[in-house]
Each structure stands twice: as C-alpha cells, then as structure tokens.
C-alpha cells in the first residue's frame, strides 16, 4: 500500500568543497541550487605536511571525507549510473541539465557531473596515496597496519567504481585490451609531463582493485567502528567478484561476512533506512550496515536524499512500472508513499541519514546467486538465503524446487532498488536499457573533456568526440 505524507521543504546547508587533484584543480560550490566549476591549474597543494603519526592519521580521516564527496560516495557514484540505466520505472523532473542528459542517455564530454565525479574520485585516491607514502611515520605496528588497510580499502573501492563508470564492463570484449582508467599509485603534488599518465586496461584496474582490497582484508581487524574493517573489504571484494562473474570467489567473500556474525538484518526493511520520528537527525549505522558514509547535521552529504526525497528536491518519482514488480504482501511496498500527486521512495527521507554503501542483505543475495550458479551450498543453500530476504519483508518462503536464477535476481533487484545497482547489474547480466543493449557506448561515461585537454595521453571512450 502507499502511505500519504504531506510534502515538506527543507533548505540544505551550503557547503564549499575545495578539491585539488593531480590532473586538474577545481573549486566546487555545492548547494541545492547550483554547482559551479572552474578552470584547471598546474599545482596540487597539500593541506598539511605529514611529519608525524598524528598527521598521517588525520590525513586518513580526510581521505574518508574526500571519498564521501557528494559526487562520489556521498551518493553520486551510485545515483548517476542509476539515472543512466533508468527507463520507465522512474520519472525525472529535475532541472539540472547535466542529470537530465544522463536520463536521456545523451552525455556530452563536458557534462559537469561526469567531470566532478572523476575529480572527486581521484581526489580521494591522491589523499590515500599521500597517506600510504608516509606510513613510515607510524611506528606502532598495529596502527600502521590499520592505516594502510583503510587507505587501500578507499583506493580499491574508488578505482572499482571509476572503472565501472568510465570504462567498458568486464564482460564486454577483452578486459586486457579495453581501456580502463589511469592507475595513479603515488601522491602527486606538482603537474609535470611524467605525471600525465595514460589509461590502464580494464584488466589492470580490476587487478589493482583486488590487490588493494585483499591487502585491506588481511591488514585490518574484522570490524573497525564505522571505518573500514576486514569484513568491509571482504564485502567489497564480493561485489567486485560478482561483477566479474567469478561466482566462487564472490560466495567465499560474502559468506565470510555473513558467517562472522558481526552484522544482522534489521527486524524490518524500513529499519534499514532509519528516519526516527520522521525527523531529520543523525543516526548510527544499523546492524546490517557493513559500510556506510557518515552524515551528521554538520558534516557529510546524502545525495540520495537530495534527489529522491520530496522532503528535499524530490526530483525522482517512482512509476507504476516499478511498483507492479512487487508481490502484494511485500513489506517493501510500504517504503513508497504519495506526496503532491506523485509517488516517492522513503528510503532516503532522512536528510542526515548515513549513505548505506554495503548492506548485509546484499551479501545474502550474492551468496545465493553465486551458490546457485556454481551448484554449491557454501554457508547456506540458495533457497535459505533467498527466504531470509523474503521472510524479512513478510513474503512466504520458497520451496527449494521453486528457486530459479530469475527469482534470485528478482529478489536482488527489489531489495536493492535505487541504491546504485541497476546499470551495473544490467551490464553483467547482459540485459537492455530500454532499446539500448547493455554494451552501448551511451551507457559508459565519457572521459571528461577538460581532463583530455590537460592530459593528452588520455584516450576518449568510443562514441564520444
């Protein structure tokens, strides 16, 4: 059923984000009304010399902040691909031209969101490269391992989403021949010809992603508060391996997260997206948050809230084509409500809610799909994992004979709807986006034109001038 709520308006705080990166320097002013960019320069400045252990640790915290940019893990890295993969299940009514271009699958190379996402990702990468280059300042062995592991988790995660967004899918031709994104593994402070690097292959980027995340898995304690821990790295590895079609490895990593017992599904689906008393407030991670970007009343941003919630801009409405996919008694339907004549998802109504990057539910779905494809029952049979997801939302259990790959994929689609999975799943499953095939050039972001102007070694993606 649909719940009716009055439409409200909230003004967002204006946030000034100053981004400096090796290839370009951009000043970004973020608000709910405008986003501006400036021209590139040739120098990258360090905020602070990393002369001691505390400075390095402080820089690591800063790298998490960089990762959580509105254009990246603050939501943009997941929202934008969802818009690029959107068809009839949502309606986009926003006025930001750059995002309208995503919905229309008509991205110019100077699209500001394409450019700013690239920039935000490499800002985070440069920050952790600076941390990794100064690990010798941390003499305590446990602290050193923790900082290295967290830095490599950030870098591996950033490169994974960069290569998924700006390059052909792993399964689209030969990943050892297709261009990925540039791998920059050392800090850059001054632009020279040697710092202007070419694109690595998709294969090389994925290998670096897996190397970084595996190092993080081995270096970090199982959990680490709301920072990345070993299980967080395993969860991201499960996502990476699933994208590659390496189902056995995906199962192994997902099972490690589930079997640890460190996380549990919330009692209801709504509890996974807390909005206490329907009042905007900062809340702690839920029991099923394996990793979430932290948002408070004074720091962080949740870009899902900005565009999905009618309590903010509310530029994305949910259409019947999506609602009709659910079974009648599915409790997930109660997350949708009518406001001002349109239907919205309530997942992101809390303006200060954390950005849920990895939920435990995803791990059950990865384990179920991987085990089904491999004919294995590592950790649990596929029917058990799917029923765990179904029972939480008040749906009847399947019998083992009823479970098919299509049913597993359907549960995945509905459970993770609007959280940034749609386009990437279409690509790995080789589906379609409307009339476009999964490997259409229009479903890959272009390399930002200003990056190519600064770095002539960069090759543009197919289909873009």
UniProtKB/TrEMBL annotation:
Primary localisation category: membrane
Record bears the keyword Membrane: yes
Domain of life: Bacteria
InterPro entries named in the record: SusD-like_N, SusD_RagB_dom, TPR-like_helical_dom_sf
Gene3D superfamilies: 1.25.40.390
Intracellular or extracellular location(s): Cell outer membrane
Keywords from the named record: Cell outer membrane, Membrane, Signal
Domain SusD-like N-terminal: 100-242
UniProt cross-references to Pfam families, sorted A to Z: SusD-like_3 (PF14322), SusD_RagB (PF07980)
GO cellular component terms given for this protein: cell outer membrane
Domain RagB/SusD residues, every copy: 350-429
Family to which the UniProt record says this protein belongs: Belongs to the SusD family.
Protein name: SusD family protein
């Amino acid at each position: 059923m649909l719940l009716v709520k009055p439409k409200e308006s909230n003004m967002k705080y204006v946030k000034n984000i100053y981004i400096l990166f090796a290839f370009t320097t951009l000043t970004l002013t973020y608000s709910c009304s405008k986003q501006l960019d400036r021209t590139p320069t040739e120098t990258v400045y360090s905020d602070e010399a990393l002369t001691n252990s505390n400075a390095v640790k402080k820089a690591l915290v800063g790298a998490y902040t960089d990762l959580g940019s509105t254009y990246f893990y603050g939501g943009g890295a997941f929202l934008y691909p969802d818009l690029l993969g959107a068809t009839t299940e949502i309606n986009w009514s926003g006025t930001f031209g750059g995002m309208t271009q995503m919905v229309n699958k008509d991205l110019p190379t100077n699209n500001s969101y394409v450019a700013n996402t690239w920039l935000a990702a490499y800002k985070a990468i440069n920050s952790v490269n600076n941390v990794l280059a100064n690990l010798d300042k941390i003499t305590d062995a446990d602290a050193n391992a923790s900082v290295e592991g967290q830095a490599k988790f950030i870098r591996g995660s950033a490169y994974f989403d960069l290569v998924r967004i700006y390059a052909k899918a792993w399964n689209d031709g030969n990943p050892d021949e297709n261009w990925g994104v540039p791998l920059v593994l050392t800090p850059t402070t001054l632009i020279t010809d040697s710092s202007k690097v070419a694109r690595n292959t998709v294969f090389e980027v994925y290998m670096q992603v897996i190397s970084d995340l595996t190092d993080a898995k081995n270096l970090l304690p199982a959990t680490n508060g709301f920072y990345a821990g070993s299980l967080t790295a395993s969860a991201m590895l499960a996502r990476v391996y699933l994208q590659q079609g390496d189902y056995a490895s995906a199962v192994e990593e997902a099972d490690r997260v589930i079997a640890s017992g460190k996380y549990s599904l919330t009692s209801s689906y709504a509890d996974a997206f807390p909005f206490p008393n329907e009042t905007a407030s900062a809340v702690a991670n839920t029991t099923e948050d394996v990793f979430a970007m932290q948002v408070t009343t004074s720091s962080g941003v949740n870009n899902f809230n900005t565009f999905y919630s009618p309590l903010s801009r509310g530029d994305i409405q949910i259409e019947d084509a999506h609602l009709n996919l659910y079974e009648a008694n599915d409790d997930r339907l109660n997350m949708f409500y009518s406001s001002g004549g349109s239907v919205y998802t309530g997942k992101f109504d809390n303006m200060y809610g954390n950005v849920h990057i990895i939920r435990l539910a995803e791990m059950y779905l990865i384990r179920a799909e991987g085990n089904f494809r491999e004919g294995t029952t590592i950790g649990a049979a596929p029917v058990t994992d799917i029923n765990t997801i179904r029972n939480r939302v008040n749906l009847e259990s399947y019998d083992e004979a009823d479970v098919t790959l299509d049913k597993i994929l359907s549960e995945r689609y509905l459970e993770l709807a609007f959280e940034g999975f749609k386009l990437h799943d279409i690509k790995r499953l080789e589906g379609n986006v409307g009339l476009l095939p999964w490997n259409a050039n229009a479903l890959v972001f272009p390399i930002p034109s200003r990056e190519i102007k600064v770095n002539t070694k960069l090759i543009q993606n197919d289909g873009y001038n």
